[in-house]
Design goal:
The complex is a heterodimer.
Chain A lengths: L15 H17 L14 E2 L3 E2 L5 E6 L5 E5 L9 H12 L6 H9 L10 H5 L4 H7 L11 H12 L4 E6 L5 H13 L4 E8 L15
Parallel strand pairs in A: 1-6, 3-5, 5-6
Antiparallel strand pairs in A: 3-4
Helix pairs in contact in A: 2-3, 2-6
Chain B lengths: L27 H17 L6 E6 L20 E6 L5 E5 L13 E3 L6 H8 L1 H15 L7 H14 L5 E6 L5 H13 L4 E5 L3 H8 L4
Parallel strand pairs in B: 2-5, 5-6
Antiparallel strand pairs in B: 2-3, 3-4
Classes of the chains: A alpha/beta, B alpha/beta.
Chain lengths: ~210, ~210
């Protein structure tokens, strides 16, 4: 009796549901994507119970790294045609007698956070690769002799009067460094800051109240 | 789907009928591409947006006139001193070198039974009011909009006349984390009035001699 040989085929997997799922995921991610900006320095923010979301626009962020270096960032505004960043750099150039070319101003508009003395700004903007760029990021000078951060804040407030100030410090940053920036902000009439934090859940309920002692 | 059909051998006779196939599209490249895209988006998307904690500092006036300084009652004042190694010191009242004795300084920490317990005890009235109001809302006994809810809490905080006035002071060894933690405690314990101020020389001395 001849053996009946079943046809040999590779196992067939129906990929349609998988493709469906992937499509959905992909579309979702595409629509919700807001790209994570390049980080100048790793900052691990402390956590708090605050549930208020950081605004997307009209915010200047002052970052203070673990080793007390200060970085600055400001967005272009809700309407990107306002080009706040380019305008700010132009003003900053006037202040420090540095002329930036239109190309440099435009490039600055597309960059993220930075932290270098203003004299290195040109080199940073014209840097060829990120390695060269990162080497220039040594923090915005904040000493009283040449307080460039104060000028950044001042001019940023002139450029975009609606901008809020956010302070983003690393959990391990010495308080003195943060205090210095806060004092500087207050001298410039900024009395309300947003401290950037991570969300943690913590709650005290009525029943958790310690017993009355009188 | 890529599919390998091994030719069936040894079929004899019969008419060779063309096999009926549903139109088969090879989806593999598409799936590959999608996987790649999804991975890319997953890695670049900032999912959880950072949260912010708003603090408002009092306006700084350059003229240092002690007469203009706001008067706060000594018995309501709770001073929290922050220093290195997550230690928290606190004392009640005002430390004035001209009026000895200095208040006693107590050491505690950031744990649940540490500074939070102190704050809750001091702020019992206001905390109970706010917690009750919140409970009512959560259980659905009252239905109010978010803004009304916030305003009511603001009003309760403003009306409070017994709760502590917390003065937060940090020395040069304190970390940024400590300040955020303590402000966070204020939010958790619904403390109505608190301020971040500078540490006075007397308090620095008190810290030095504080029990370890």
């Amino acid at each position: 009796m001849p053996k009946i040989k079943p046809p040999v085929r590779t196992p067939h997997i129906d990929m349609t549901p998988m493709v469906d799922l992937f499509s959905v995921l992909l579309i979702f991610l595409l629509l919700t994507a807001s790209f994570r900006p390049a980080e100048v320095t790793p900052i691990e923010t402390p956590s708090s119970v605050s549930e208020k979301q950081a605004p997307d626009n009209d915010i200047m962020t002052i970052m203070i790294s673990k080793d007390s270096l200060v970085f600055f960032n400001i967005d272009n505004g809700k309407d990107t045609s306002t080009h706040f960043r380019s305008k700010l750099l132009e003003k900053m150039g006037e202040q420090y007698k540095i002329t930036f070319t239109p190309g440099e101003l435009k490039r600055f508009g597309t960059m993220a956070a930075f932290g270098m003395p203003i004299k290195d700004m040109k080199a940073w903007l014209n840097a060829k690769d990120t390695k060269e760029r990162d080497a220039l990021q040594i923090g915005v000078p904040t000493d009283s002799l040449d307080n460039q951060l104060a000028w950044w804040v001042r001019l940023a407030r002139l450029t975009n009067p609606g901008a809020e100030v956010a302070l983003k410090g690393d959990a391990e940053t010495p308080y003195v460094a943060v205090k210095k920036v806060m004092d500087l902000l207050q001298e410039n009439k900024v009395n309300k800051f947003n401290l950037v934090t991570n969300l943690t859940k913590e709650e005290v309920l009525l029943k958790d109240l310690p017993p009355e002692t009188k | 789907m890529a599919e390998l059909i091994v030719e069936e051998k040894g079929k004899k006779g019969g008419k060779r009928r063309p096999k009926k196939h549903g139109t088969h599209i090879d989806m593999t490249p598409m799936v590959d591409l999608m996987c790649l895209l999804i991975t890319f988006f997953m890695l670049t998307t900032a999912f959880n947006k950072p949260k912010v904690m708003v603090i408002t500092m009092p306006e700084k006036d350059n003229k240092e006139d002690p007469k203009d300084a706001p008067k706060i009652s000594a018995e309501r004042t709770l001073n929290i001193l922050l220093t290195a190694k997550d230690e928290v010191f606190y004392y009640m009242g005002i430390a004035d070198p001209k009026k000895p004795p200095l208040p006693t300084i107590v050491k505690t920490d950031f744990s649940k039974d540490g500074i939070r317990k102190i704050l809750l005890i001091k702020n019992r009235d206001l905390f109970t009011k706010i917690a009750e109001y919140r409970d009512k809302r959560i259980t659905g006994k009252i239905v109010v909009a978010d803004t009304t809810f916030d305003n009511e809490i603001k009003r309760l905080k403003k009306e409070d006349k017994h709760g502590p006035i917390v003065l937060i002071k940090a020395d040069s060894k304190a970390k940024y984390k400590d300040i955020v933690n303590i402000i966070d405690e204020m939010a958790i314990c619904n403390v109505a009035s608190y301020a971040i101020v500078d540490m006075s020389p007397v308090e620095l001395e008190m810290l030095k001699t504080a029990p370890k």
